[in-house]
Amino acid sequence: MNKLKEHKKLLLILVPVLVILLIVVIVAVSIGGKGKALEPTVDLRTASRNMDTAVSAGKVDTAKELNGHFLVAENSGYELYLKKEVMSIIVRDKATGATMESTVTEDDGKSNASWSGFMKCGINLDVQVGNTTQQKKVDLLDSKAQIEVTPTDGGFTAKIDYPQYELGFSLTVLLYDDGSIEATIPESSIYEESDVNKIGNIYVFPMLGRTRLGEMDGYMIVPDGNGALINLNDKEGRFASPYSQRVFGNDVGISESYVLSLFWGKYETINESEYILAPVYGMVHSESEMAYLAVITSGAEGATIMAYPNGVFTDYNWISARFLKHTLYNEPTSNSGGSVVKVTDRFQYDISVRYFFTKNEDANYAGLANRYRDYLLKTGTLVQKADEFRLRADFLGTDRENWMFTTKAVEMTTTDDIRKIYDELKAEGVTDLLTLYKGWQDGGICNLPVSSYNADKSIGGTRDLTRLIKEAKDAGIQFYLYTDALRANPSTTNTTFNVIKKIDTRLFTENTYKEVYSSMHYLTPARTSELLPKLVDSMVKKDVDNLALTGITNTMFSYRYDGKSYDRIDTAQMQATVFEAIDPKVNLALEEPIETYWKYMDAMIDMPVKDSDYIFTDESIPFLSIVFKGIVPMYSDYVNFEANKHEFFLKLVETGIYPSFYITMQDSTELYYTNSNDLYSSQYSVYKNTMIEYYKALKEFNDHVAGATIKKHQIDGKIVTVVYSNGVTVTIDYSNNAFTASKNGSVVMSYKVGDAE
User: Is the full-model pTM beyond 0.90?
Assistant: First the structure.
């Protein structure tokens, strides 16, 4: 009996212990493996203590807290912290202790409720409510969004639901070994269960790296033209509007005539800017020597870059991308002009932004540009080409002017004229040339589209043009035939079919505001994919293998065709397929191509040397030039049309871009009654000496830096210093005081070349 009592006592002791051990085993199994998901109901702070990150530092010590954020991932260089309630992150440099935070914790007392909520949350929405013309700002706090976080290897995944609006999505944030952070919202995770509420725009960490007034030295980088900076100094309320530009240009298929945002609508009436060719933006904190470049790796076709200097609605400097998912359009209801406002279908694309961080001497725009170049080369988005100096001498063959009941040719530069120009330039030592021949096709420069290699008789015909191209090749001259692969001229070709209609089903018409051909239409990408390969095949049969393209190189649009709607993502993919088909057959010179097509180009033409010069940008920088120099040859806009040719020359030295001239043998006054009447100064006899001077001076300079990349770039007032990877330093003086001669370098105009210290 006593033994039985003892056994019962033992069981009473052992059972609880076994239960506890069983619970411990279950918990250990559930969280022990890398990447195993925790139950969504587990609080992030508790869950993070058990998270095994796949980074070099091993298990994360989540007892670490930073401004209300808890450590979720780290590697040898950086730590990533998260505040679940508002989806705010902090990135911390472990070596220096410098940080960048994605939200504003303090309240300045000046912002209204909507702005206050926007600044305090890492994820924000514009919600399209029905067909109202004003989208509603929605933050995580005011909307009472429900957030479930699951730690993963190197980061976390958050499921974000907005029950009030019956929509939501998932966000994954990962810290990579190279110190970059990627934030992704998969299209497949987005749901919209309401017939009324749709996602208008999504903002991902819009305040990352934000600063207040002039409390920190540094700048924001905007991808305007070649690149531009907005300093983080106190703007003293001078500006009422931000920088806001659509990546890869506007969408002509959707007429966004409505106010699409509570804060931005009436302020986005700025002048047309340079194309955004690179889907990037950046923030640099000069004092703490910490910087990042945000690269939109997916969804760039739907993104708008926005940069807000302090004084524009708040006291904060911030820069971000805004991703469009729904917008409004007018759908006609009758031929008499009646219409109804409708909401587009959701634009189908993943949203992904990768933030590349740099530190110390690389925490500047040059360091970020170099980081971007390395990323592009690694991913194959940019391919190393032969980058050798050439002077670009383009020629206009022929255009048309009205004559009686038809048109007649206006010959400006024939094949024989080009031979004569080449011979004269060669006699002066100008031998390294690249030429784009415009208006070579039968019917002249405006006869579009071009689907076969058939030259206009007025310039010499196909046979003589083929002979000229062979002669140029033998002389080492790169000779390209130029065409617009996007546009169709309704006056010269049948545009009843195979041209795009806007989303509202109306035919898209581009006005030229010219006398002979007043409008153009856009070919469907499917039609381009038929005609352009035909042109290439007919060229290759004649051993003509250089083609220069415009139109499809930087124009993406939504459209409707044959009862089906297509968006910009569809356009980009179909045009990329065209490039894939023709790239192996010909060398391609592309006019201001967007990042999507960089890997296909053998040369970039019409590269901007500076930015659009908005009042809120403080400095023009050669960001894209730093990316491309030594990798792909870049050719400038035409010197002909530059008012200050001396300053433009120095810009070419600074940026490493090669000079371009648009030349005709005949006087440009002959073009007065043609569509080319904006070519107001082009006669070869006028520009011959300038071409020779530019060639000799810039060739001498480029001999010093041939094949090298730009490593550093620094602006100090009117003095700019450029350091190349081969150790050469170039100093440019934009003041009136030229440098004196130096035994270490050669002096030409207002720059000098010397060895790096």
Answer: no
